[in-house]
């Protein structure tokens, strides 16, 4: 990338007090990432790995315990009042569940009008015109504006949620699994809509998902997150062709094949088991308790992020071997 990132996250940390006295949940631990103008970047990992907390911390819905979030080079933690509100408008969030993210007592028009008013559009005529434009953009009839959000289907609600997030002309969207709560029959429609709008409007997007096939379709770069840390990141195609962290390999091995005959014959996933508690994460490499390659050193030392190509890094002592093409041997080992 030759231009400057529109969003830069530096060593971000988010901790919560645990129900256990004196302990904290380390939801996000020393995470850094960059998002450039007009690009879609994927953030993948299992449930409980900290993806949503990271997204919520970036937009200010959770308080950071450390690190910085910079928008166009400006540290948001150093802003207050009108300056902070203006910066926050440039960062918008699309929630996973369209049933809980919209006020069921509001009509569609009221939901969009409220967003436009907060965004500084004072003229009612201008807000009405902008509402019609937003509904056109997301493929909803103008008459929908008079219906309450509770009357809409899940796909329609998510289209309204996307329209609301675009109302203030954001520069960055944080999309938290925006289609996972929808029926399979309409996921593709909403996803195609989202990709079209992102391309037309040129907004940068951090796309949070556990569905790696969606991320592969949408993202130019991918960050893989495990137990609060980024364990691998790189160009999407390269990471999918050469996954160089055992956890990335596990995620890819878990994606079902479209052809049932291929699915039946493929190797088993690398590892099994659950994500450890973020209150008491394992020492050293956090993935070691589930990794088939772990040895004594993995418990003693946190692995650095090894550079595998100019834009591809993985935090595993075996990263170079995995990148070099030894994936099939590891899959056989994991499958037993």
Automatic annotation (TrEMBL):
One of its GO terms (molecular function) is ATP binding. Its main location: membrane. It comes from the Bacteria. It holds the Pfam family oligo_HPY. InterPro entries: AAA+_ATPase, ABC_transp_ATP-bind, ABC_transporter-like_ATP-bd, ABC_transporter-like_CS, Oligopep_ABC_C, P-loop_NTPase. It is a peripheral membrane protein. Belongs to the ABC transporter superfamily. This is ABC transporter ATP-binding protein. The lineage of its organism: Bacteria, Pseudomonadati, Pseudomonadota, Alphaproteobacteria, Hyphomicrobiales.
């Amino acid at each position: 990338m030759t231009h400057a990132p529109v969003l830069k996250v530096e060593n971000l940390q988010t901790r919560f007090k645990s129900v256990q006295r004196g302990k904290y949940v380390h939801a996000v631990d020393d995470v850094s990432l960059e998002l450039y103008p007009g690009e879609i970047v994927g953030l993948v990992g299992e449930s409980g790995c900290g993806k949503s907390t990271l997204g919520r911390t970036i937009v200010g819905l959770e308080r950071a315990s450390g690190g910085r979030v910079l928008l166009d080079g400006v540290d948001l933690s150093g802003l207050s009042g009108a300056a902070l509100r203006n910066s926050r408008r440039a960062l918008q969030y699309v929630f996973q569940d369209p049933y809980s993210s919209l006020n069921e007592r509001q009509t569609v028009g009221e939901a969009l009008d409220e967003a436009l008013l907060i965004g500084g559009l004072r003229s009612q005529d201008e807000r009405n015109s902008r509402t019609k434009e937003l509904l056109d953009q997301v493929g909803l009839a103008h008459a929908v504006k008079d219906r309450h959000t509770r009357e809409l289907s899940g796909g329609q609600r998510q289209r309204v949620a996307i329209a609301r997030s675009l109302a203030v002309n954001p520069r960055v969207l944080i999309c938290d699994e925006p289609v996972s709560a929808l029926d399979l029959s309409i996921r593709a429609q909403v996803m195609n809509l989202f990709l079209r709008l992102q391309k037309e409007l040129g907004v940068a997007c951090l796309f949070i998902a556990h569905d790696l096939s969606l991320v592969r379709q949408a993202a130019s770069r991918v960050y893989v997150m495990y137990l609060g840390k980024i364990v691998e990141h790189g160009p999407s195609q390269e990471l999918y062709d050469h996954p160089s962290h055992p956890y990335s390999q596990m995620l890819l091995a878990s994606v079902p094949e479209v052809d049932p005959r291929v699915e039946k014959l493929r190797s088993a996933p690398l590892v099994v088991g659950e994500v450890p508690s973020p209150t008491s994460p394992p020492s050293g490499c956090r993935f070691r308790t589930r990794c088939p390659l772990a040895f004594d050193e993995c418990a003693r030392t946190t692995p650095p992020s090894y550079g595998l190509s100019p834009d591809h890094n993985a935090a595993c002592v075996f990263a170079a071997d995995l990148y070099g093409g030894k994936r099939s041997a590891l899959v056989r080992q994991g499958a037993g």
